[in-house]
Design goal:
By secondary structure, this protein is mainly β. It has a domain of 192 residues: Immunoglobulin-like (Sandwich). Helix content is 6%, strand content 39%. It is built from 2 helices and 18 strands. The strands form 5 sheets. The protein has a 5-stranded antiparallel sheet with strand order 1-2-16-13-18. A 5-stranded antiparallel sheet has the order 3-4-5-6-7, with no helix packed on it. A 3-stranded antiparallel sheet has the order 8-14-15, with no helix packed on it. A hairpin with a 2-residue loop joins strand 6 and strand 7. The radius of gyration is 18 Å and the shape is globular. It starts with 11 loop residues before the first strand and ends with a strand. The relative contact order is 0.19.
Length: 275
Amino acid sequence: LSALGEEGPDVFLLQLRFYEDGTVRFTMDENHAIVGHIRTRYVIPSGDVIQDEYMPLAKDLEYTYSQGEKSSTFQVGKSIVVKLMHAGVVLTVAVDGQVVQTINSKKHLVIEGTRYEYNDKCPFNMPPSYDAKYIDPACSPGTHDGSWAEETEGPRLMAESKERLDYLVLGDLPRSEIVASSGPSLVGIDEGPGPTTFTSSLLWVNPSDTLVALTGGCGGDLTSTFVSESGVIDLLLYPGMKPQEFSTAYHRTTGLPSLPPLFGLGFHRSRYAVE
């Protein structure tokens, strides 16, 4: 879904990249040739761009396309299968035959600016629920004061466009559970119920992103809702990796210190690992 409406079949550009260590990168961007004269884009600060030129691409890769269901399937090595449904841009990642992660299952990937003034409410109007582990207060009904208000913290960052950028602390997480990483973000520890069976990790990379909600579902599944306000969705998936493998891959990808399994709330980077 583009905030610009139906500008033609090529309004979006999609890209999948597969790396030797099993990392998968999915990028969804607006076609600048079509929307460049309509939208004023954010400029990504250089420190926020993942430098993947030194990450070797996967060599053991098989690709098939189904004309009937209009889907692309990528077999990466012996265990990872990534499937993209083109019509709805639904991405599923399976490890050893079991789906560990689905991207855009609700078909609500949105690339648009949703906020114009401080503490604006975003259009999702998501009600609090008993299984909600986190909901962005800007996306839930009513006014939000005190610890639920959006707060501006940290140093101001100067983008190349000379636009002043802040990052937000969202939600009522206890301060004891919030840890500042070496990057411009805040992270909260998610214990996760039940025994460990599979691991699926995600790193969300945007110049302006928001984790809208993290809610539970059937069978212990977790659903995360994100909004991109930058005109680009860029995420890296680490399917099936053990915590130490994810921690190593995260460090190699970002250059930041290795981290334990976590989900993150932050202006510049949001990431979580679910066991």
